[in-house]
Amino acid sequence: MVKKLLIDNPAVSNVVFYPRKILIPDEKDPNIRVLKLQIDKNILIGGFFYLNNPNFPTILMFHGNGEIAADYQYFLNFFFECNVNLAVVDFRGYGFSSGEPYYTSLITDALPIYNEFYKWMIKNSISDSLFILGRSLGSICTSEIGSHNPESLRGIIFESGFASIYD
Q1: Cβ neighbours of residue 128 under 8 Å, at least 6 residues apart?
Q2: pLDDT at site 112
Q3: Whole-model pTM?
């Protein structure tokens, strides 16, 4: 467990994070799979895998603040036109993920989420060509994963990322 910093104080978290909760949906569409990634004994990270073709590369996306993984069902065509699958995961406390969001959890959860998702891909016979995308707040997670340079990672995409938490 990483020591919580001043930036993890609830007074700060309540201003920084805008989580929205949803119930775990029933899986009805065979091309949309509910992700339940157990990254710690008490932390379940939720998300969705949107299947275009199991042989296509996959983008694992860490969304922006105020968004949840379920929001991306409305943007699938943009990704599918690029011949990729899309997986979007939530942060702690967002969507149906457990826990409460705080800054350092964005960093400490990133690599375990990546590793658990990669195992899920292999188990479900999805091509192991994996890219990560960090949008806004999600760029923190993407930067952390990239800093570890996992062998399975094919590329990193930043959208509306930021260079400093102090700016």
Answers
A1: 118, 121, 122, 152
A2: 98
A3: 0.93
Residue 128's pLDDT is: 87
Residue stretches of the chain with pLDDT short of 50: none
The two three-digit tokens of residue 39, written as one number? 């990254």
pLDDT at 166: 54
Rounded to the nearest angstrom, the gap between the alpha carbon of residue 166 and the centroid of all alpha carbons in its chain is 23
Task: Name every residue whose Cβ is closer than 8 Å to that of residue 62 and which is 6 or more positions away in sequence.
Answer: 89, 91, 110, 132, 133, 134, 135, 137, 138, 139, 140, 141, 142
Amino acid (1-letter code) at residue 143? S
Three-state SS string over 48-75 comes to EEECCCCCCCEEEEECCCCCCHHHHHHH
The domains located in the chain, with CATH, are: 32-159 (3.40.50.1820)
